[in-house]
Each structure stands twice: as structure tokens, then as C-alpha cells.
# Entry
Amino acid sequence: MPLHPQAQVLVDLVNAMGGAPASDETLQAARDGLAMLHAGGSGEPEAVYAIGDLDADGVPIRVYRPSADDGLPVVVYLHGGGWTLGSVDVYDPVTRALANAAQATVVSVDYRLAPEHPFPAPLDDCMTALRWVAKNASAFEADGTRLAIAGDSAGGNLAATCALLARDGGEPDLALQALIYPVVDADFTTGSYQANGKGYLLEESQMRWFFDCYTRGGTDPTDWRVSPLRAPDVAGVAPALVITAEYDPLRDEGEAYARRLADAGVAVEACRYDGMIHAFFALMGTIDDGRAALEHTATALRKAFGTLSG
# Structure
């Protein structure tokens, strides 16, 4: 279908602004730009019952409790931004809304960013936080035995890889991995890259720079821990929700990952949002389908946790 009018407005605005090429020299401008995009597009932050900053074995985390109820399930959320941009502050409206909608405690991980901290530092931080939460959720009155992981874009990449590492290590047990337009392969030749790699907010040149930042020091971008679509085996990993967007260069790889999981016998729900662009999930304040996708994710989480009534 054509680009949705709400997405078109954003695309036109970003394209009219132009911008400097993605490079180390423009790193801070890119970080500031993402923060501004989210501030303008994520909507007014929702009230939640309680928010607290904690230390998870050296990794900063922010805990969002939607209510005073004890023993709520937990969602570990990994923010997007090409492993290079973003923070728990930038994603605060998203994690607040997800906590309320899922009626679950959300733990947002402030993992280290590339290029200052390339692979495996961001992944190590996310895995450390995930394991800490599983063992210490009672510290914030949550139930670590009902645990899911979620993330968008590069956060989806980290979530998918953490789910595979959790399977390989035998813990923690995950009820769901919610992957929102995830990066899962260092392949710029897909049909969606060819069709959507320029002019639709996220561009191929940015993704090439993000991969370069993340793999500084000689890491092979086709290593499955960077490109989980290339994992030798995905059988036995946690059930998945995979959300993609029609006008996103990452669309095809996300859908290929969903098919690979399904072929391996993993329970998967795959959903493409037609007319949508990359980042629409986080821009729920200006794009209605972003809110719909967040509610979709919350429903999938509640089903996985067994807390969906009716």
C-alpha cells in the first residue's frame, strides 16, 4: 500500500532537513537528532506507579512498575539506535507505555554504546542485565520466573541474540522474545534494502555506518552474534513476536528470521505493518500504528505470561 499519510509527513520533514552523512564526525549530532525525533514523536510520557534506577552487576537499568502489585512478570527492554544511539532516557515514553499496556514490570537496559564500546560490550551488558533480572527481580517486587525480552531495531538484534544465548546457556527461561523491526543480518542486498534504502527515514548508508561502529576492532559482521539470522541453529529458542514495517530496509531480514524460527519449530507470530516506516513503534505519539504495534506487543506479552483475561 502507499506510505501512510502520518508516516509521509515525517518522511517529508526528515528529507527536507537533509543532514550530514552518517560518520564518526557527526556522532553527537546523530545522538542528539534521535533524541529530538523521539521527544517530538513519542508523545507525552505516561504516568506509572514507580520508576527506579538500579545497578545490575555493573549495568545501569531503569525499572518501571505499572502498579503496586507484587509479583508482576518482567520484560527486559533493549532500546534501538544502531548500537550507537539512544538511551533509557530517550526511550522513556516507550517503556512507560509498554509497562502500562502489558501490566508488567519493564526493565530498560542502558547498555554501553559503540563506537566507544564496540561488540561485544553492548551484548555483554544486555546479557548481564537479563541474567541479573532473572535472579534478582524480587528486589523490585517482580517475578523473575515470568520473564520476556523485547527490543526494537538494534535492540531487536540484541534481544534475538540474548534469546539464543539464553537457550545455549540453559537460562534464563524466556516466555517470549518480542522483536520490533530487528536488525538480524549484515546483508544490504535484500529487496527491502533495494526498495527502501534511501528516503524512508532509515537509510542504507546509516546502517553501514552502524555496523561499522558496532564491529570496530575486527569483528566479522556475519558472526551470528552480530547477525543472528546466520546462527547455526535456532531450534529451541523462546517463542517470538516479530513486527516489521513495509517501507523499512530491515523488513526482509526480519521476516526471514521469523520464517527461520517457524521452520525450526519455534512458535512465531509475524506481523507486517503496511504503509509504515522504520521507527514507527517508538513514534507512537504521532503515528497511530505505532500505538497499535505497542498494544499488539503488550497483548503478546500478556498471552505469554498468562495474564490476558477473556
User: Anything to note?
Assistant: The chain has a mean pLDDT of 96. The radius of gyration is 18 Å. Strands lie at 50-56, 59-65, 72-78, 105-109, 142-152, 176-180, 240-245, 268-273.
